[in-house]
Each structure stands twice: as structure tokens, then as C-alpha cells.
Input
Amino acid sequence: MDYKAYIAQRLPVEGVSREEIAESITVPPDTSLGDYALPCFKFAKLMRKSPALIAQELAARYPADGVISGVAAVNGYLNFRVDRRGLAAETLSRIQKEGEKYGSSPIGAGKTVCIDYSSVNIAKPFHIGHLSTTVLGGTLYRIFQFLGYKTVGINHLGDYGTQFGKLISAYKHWGNKEDVQKGGIHAINDLYVRFNNEATEEMEAEAREYFRLIESGDEEAAGLFQWFKQLTLDYVQTIYEKLHVTFDSYAGESFYIDKMGPVIDELKEKGLLVESRGAQVVDLEPYGMTPFIVLRSDGASLYGTRDLAAAFYRKQVYDFDKCLYVVAYQQNLHFKQLFKVIELMGKEWAKDLVHVAYGMVSLEDGAMSTRQGKVVWLEDVIGRCVEKALSIITEKNPALENKEEVAEKVGVGAVMFGALYNNKIKDIVFSYDKALNFDGETSVYVQYTCARASSVLSKAGEAGEFTVPELCAEEFELVKALADFPDTVKEAAEKYEPSFIARYAVDTAQKFNKFYFGCKILQAESGESRAFRLALTKATLTALTNALTLLGIGVPEKM
Output
């Protein structure tokens, strides 16, 4: 339950909106004063009364109910105490009833969200820089689906441009079918790199001709391109399966080549296209931006032109309520330009286009991507994490069954969590040691907490019915955390911020471990306490499992 919103709805303050009241409510550092507090100092000038008097008057007016058990005015603060037993009974009963759907909601029913993420380039392997867009987009896909939205995951493939003519030229000169088929994406990439290092002027001209042949539908050139494309998709699918990422569309840049014409025509009809140095552009200088190039001086389109066509196509086909672009912050200007052009075309839905920007990922040695000349393939990062996880698990629990399967969940989860835990806009320095820390703010810590809860429940057998006793501090803090999960999921969707769920998982795991070490569970003082604490343990396991599942991270029963 969102207690701040609940209290604000029942506490009218003249001249102050419910939203402002909710935002002003805080959690006191000393919980003996109350569970929530409203400072009344900011209302003094408006109401022309002292904060202490305002707090007293509001306390007298607050309606009694079964959610807030006490309201007290103390030195200009209005303190609220939650009905602890009522909250525990309601929360645990709800989690028992809803199970794996706990935290879900029908708020998105009848609405569609398109999410453009990952967007791999044909003939190029995944490097560490692709991690964020892939796992952020995949998590947002699951979150919106969990909230009842129809979600459309789109992999906007980079499958158009002269580089594919270069690849065919390289293959013709140095490649053979057997080696490429066997080597897959890395063999293709090696050919492309060799072309860039060794190509003559004649080969460059040959590459341009091969690209022209692809565009014109030449059987051999188009066939080679489709083969390279399929090898790429086969390769990336192995990565997507590890990361639990799926897509509903692989419509890439080439898909929109025959769909650009009507958009360009509409730009012309509305007088938005102007000539600049021979190119056709939309002038955005009045809006503080450089011109948006639609057609180059030679008449060729750019990826921005194809992005325009893609936006119109997605609106027409999916009639989205939101269309998210999960792309690095280096593309901030491009998306501001793109959205502004669509707005200038008079499309009301331009406001529904959202650039979900994120920071870059690098390793501790600074290696990040091909642009820096330090190529770190994502598959190698995943493999090393899984290998390291297996080593740690073997050392900690040598008798554990299915160690390899557990190590896979732990290692892959650590890589994903590393990109999801911090605010998405922050640059990330990935550390193998930190990511696999059993005691840190990591997925491993949360997974280990789930395994601990599973062990308790396994030893206890059937927990049965429970009643709620007087709660100790550790029990109540854990109950509050469990009650917060549905609102955390909604807030993560509203702000396109999966880190809210990742941080929730760590925070709840920490509260469970305080409860685990501070309260006897199986050897509780009474049958009533034992039954309640087992129910609380099971509810925690459910909430943490749901949180990790939304993040795409597996939950081992034993570790």
C-alpha cells in the first residue's frame, strides 16, 4: 500500500494539493515517533498559523480507520502510526492468494507499449556496450507486461548500409562458405575488419557495387546478405536465451526502405523540407537544435529517415500508447530532433515517444567497445562470470547438486544485475568480484537470501494457517517492505527505471536477513509466532522471486 498517498487522500489541507501533501510526508529517523510524519512548517505562511497549531488541528480532523492506528501532533509534525497487525494480515494474505502474480496490476489493460531495444548490427558480435540496452529493454518489457499492457518488443536491426557491400567483397576475396558457416559471426566480423584494414580503391568501388546489387535484389548479393543476417540472428539468439530476452519484431532498417516515401512526401507537402548545401533537411534551429537531415545531397536516406518511417509504421500497425527507445544517452540530440520533426508534422502522438537513455558500461580496465579498439565480447563476460560463480559455489558448498545449473543462474544474473542496479543514466564500471559478492548489493546476495528462505520452508514442512501476533521491529520492517512491492513495480514503469526493482530486491533481502538472525523461526517461542514467521518467510520468497523474475534473473532453490 502507498501509505503516503493514502494519508494524503484523507487529510485535506486548504490550498495544498493531495500530491503535494503526499510528497511532503517522510519516514521519521526514529520510528518510535511513528511510521510516517508530515512536517507542517511549509503550511504556516499559507494558513497563517504556527506549525504546532496546524499539526494539532489536522490531528483532530484525521478520520479514524483500520489502517492508521494512531495520529499525534509533536512539535509541528503530524506523526502517523500504521496498524501493524492489520498491515501484516492484509499483506501476507494477499501474497498467499496472488503468488507469482503478486505485484501485478491490470492498469495497462487495453493499452500498448512498443519497446525498441538491443538493436543489434548485422555481422557484428555483441560487445559489453550492448548489455544495457538489452537487459534494460527486456526488463521494461516484462514490467509493462506484468502491469497488463500489451507489449511489443522490437529489435530494430542495423541491416542497411554500404558496410554490407564491403562484407560481400571481403568474402569474395578471402572467405569460403565452410569457414564462415563454422566460424559464424566472428568469422564474418574478421572478414569485415580485414576489409577495412586492407581494401584497395578497386575493392571499395566493388563494395559500393555489391551494395547496389543488394538494393536491386540481385540473387547472389541478396542471398549472401541474407545468409550473413541469419548467421547473426542465430548467434544473438544464444545470448538472448541466456539473458531471458525476447522480441516480437525483428524489423530493421532495411524493412523501412520502401516506407520512407510517404513520410518524405508529407514533409514536403507541409513545407517542412528545405535545402541546405544540397541536402533536404528540416530546420530545427528555432528550437535550439541543428537541422535534421532527411536526404543527403546525393538523394540517399540516413538512419534518421528510416527512424521516421519506423515511428509512423509502429503507430499505424500497433497504435501504441507509448513507444520507448532504449538507446544510449549519446543519441539524446537525435531523438529530440526525431520527436520534434514528428510534432512539427502535426502528429499528436509525438508526445508518446520516449527516449529511455542510459549510461555506458565498461570493465575495470576501461575496455568497453570496438570504438576504443578494446573489444570485449558480451559472451566472454558472461562465460567468465559463470565460471567464477561455479568456482565460488564449489568452494562454499562442494556437495551441492546441479552446481553447473546454479552457477549459470548466478553468473548470468550477476552480469544482468550489474547493468540494472544503478540509475540507468549512470555510467557503469563492471567488476567481476563486486558482481559476485555474496554479501554485497548484488543479485547473488538476493539469490542466496531466496535459497535461505527456501531452506527454512523445506525444514518446516507445511506451514498451515497463521494469525498475526504483536510484531517486533524486524518483522514489521519486513512486512512494510513486502507491502511496498506493487507500488515499486508501478513506479518503475512510470519512470522507466528498472533499478527501482533491483534496489527493492536488495533492500527486502537485507530486511529478511535481519529478521532471520533477529527472530527465531523454526524454534519460535510459540506456535503462533512460528506459523506467522513461516508465512512471512514464504511471502518474502514470493516477493523476491517475482522481483528477480521481472529482472530476468533465475532463482536457485539451493546455493
